[in-house]
């Protein structure tokens, strides 16, 4: 039985189809005072195992997830697996300044109370798996990002906008079947202000695929795209696992000259091009 969070309904359906499990009827209501009420249809809950699949890009998504976990237990399910396609607060895996919380740890502990195991898709830092009090495994969806790419890229270069995403760029390149890999250096000054120091890669006339785990404000990607178009890249594609696309991110990428954008359904957006359901199904 697949229990979808409200932000992961398409992925929940895809996962049900992929695994042959039932998709539960779920309600997401809200009381007049603002409190949420996520519940499962009791007639739909059968068997002793359930998979709750819920991305948590907002605070409300976390509350909803805790309620769904509790609701399936209340309905008599013994074993709960929680899939976090996108784990919100995953980037605060340490206190960057005195007085700050380790938010990823706080969320992981809360999620652990309602589940027997957790599956994460490309967390920003794999170390967050250690914050859970139950077994936690990681799924790599980066290779799926090669699927929607045009098959005839010109002399392709797979580029990560910072050193932390090189492995993702290599994964996409390997799945694509050929091309070079390079990376830029990034310094972040604030939530929206980043400086990119480009490598000396020759990109003129080439297709460049910029690969990252998350596009949030779009600052990292738009700066990178700007450098590449200034250097006469023939095409600049963006491939990311988690398309947060907060605020004006989409416009920033378009204005910077992106050719096309590819992302997975860990966060369901109109640019979602590929589903992580097959790789998540393999991990269940
Ligand atoms: C950070 O290191 C991540 O890998 C992404 O590069 C970052 O989250 C992107 O954020 P933004 O779109 O706000 O630049």
**Which CATH class of the largest domain?**
Alpha Beta
Terminal-residue CA separation: 12 Å
Instruction: Please work out how many helical segments DSSP would assign.
Output: 7
Radius of gyration: 20 Å
Number of strands: 15
The geometry reads as globular
Strand order of the largest sheet: 9-8-12-13-14-15
| SSE sequence, one letter per element | EHEEEHEHEEEHEEEEHEHEEH
Given as residue ranges, the uncertain stretches (5+ residues, pLDDT < 50) are none
Characterize the largest beta sheet: strand count, sense, and whether it forms a barrel. 6 strands, parallel
Q: Helix share of residues?
A: 25-40%
Beta-strand share of residues: 25-35%
Q: Which topology of the largest domain does CATH recognise?
A: Rossmann fold
Mean pLDDT: 95
Structural domains: how many:
2
Tell me which CATH architecture of the largest domain applies here: 3-Layer(aba) Sandwich
Small molecules bound in the structure, each named once = ribose-5-phosphate
Structural class: alpha/beta
Gist of the model:
26% of the residues lie in helices and 26% in strands.
Describe this structure in words.
The chain is 26% helix and 26% strand. Helix 1 (9-19) crosses helix 7 (277-283) and helix 5 packs parallel to helix 6. The chain has helices spanning 9-19, 59-74, 103-112, 166-176, 219-230, 249-256, 277-283; strands spanning 2-4, 26-30, 36-40, 49-53, 79-84, 117-121, 136-139, 157-160, 180-183, 185-188, 194-197, 207-215, 235-243, 260-264, 272-274. The longest helix has 16 residues, at 59-74. The mean pLDDT is 95. It has 2 domains: 2-141 and 277-283, Rossmann fold (3-Layer(aba) Sandwich), CATH 3.40.50.2020; 143-265, Rossmann fold (3-Layer(aba) Sandwich), CATH 3.40.50.2020. The radius of gyration is 20 Å and the shape is globular. The N and C termini lie close together (12 Å). It is of the alpha/beta class and 284 residues long. The chain is built from 7 helices and 15 strands. It has a 6-stranded parallel sheet with strand order 9-8-12-13-14-15, sandwiched between helices. Strands 1-4-5-6-7 form a 5-stranded parallel sheet, with helices on both faces. The chain binds ribose-5-phosphate. The site of ribose-5-phosphate has 13 residues, from strand 12 and helix 5.
């Amino acid at each position: 039985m697949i229990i979808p969070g409200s932000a992961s309904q398409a992925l929940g359906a895809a996962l049900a189809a992929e695994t042959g499990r039932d998709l539960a009827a779920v309600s997401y209501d809200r009381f007049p005072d603002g409190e949420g009420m996520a519940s499962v249809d009791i007639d739909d809950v059968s068997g002793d195992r359930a998979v709750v699949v819920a991305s948590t890009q907002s605070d409300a998504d976390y509350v909803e997830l805790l309620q769904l976990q509790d609701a399936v237990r209340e309905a008599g399910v013994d074993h709960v697996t929680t899939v976090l396609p996108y784990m919100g607060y995953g980037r605060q895996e340490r206190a960057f300044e005195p007085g700050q919380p380790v938010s990823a740890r706080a969320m992981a502990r809360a999620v652990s109370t309602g589940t027997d195991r957790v599956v994460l898709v490309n967390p920003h830092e794999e170390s967050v798996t250690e914050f859970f009090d139950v077994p936690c495994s990681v799924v790599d969806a980066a290779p799926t990002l090669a699927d929607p790419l045009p098959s005839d890229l010109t002399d392709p270069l797979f580029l990560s906008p910072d050193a932390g995403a090189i492995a993702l760029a290599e994964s996409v390149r390997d799945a694509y079947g050929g091309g070079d890999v390079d990376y830029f250096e990034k310094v972040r000054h604030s939530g929206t202000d980043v400086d990119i120091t480009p490598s000396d890669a020759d990109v003129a006339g080439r297709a460049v695929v910029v690969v990252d785990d998350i596009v949030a404000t779009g600052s990292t990607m738009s700066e990178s795209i700007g450098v590449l178009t200034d250097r006469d890249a023939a095409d600049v594609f963006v491939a990311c696992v988690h398309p947060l696309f907060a605020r004006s991110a989409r416009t920033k990428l378009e204005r910077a000259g992106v050719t096309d954008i590819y992302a997975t359904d860990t966060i369901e957006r109109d640019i979602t091009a590929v589903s992580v359901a097959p790789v998540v199904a393999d991990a269940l």
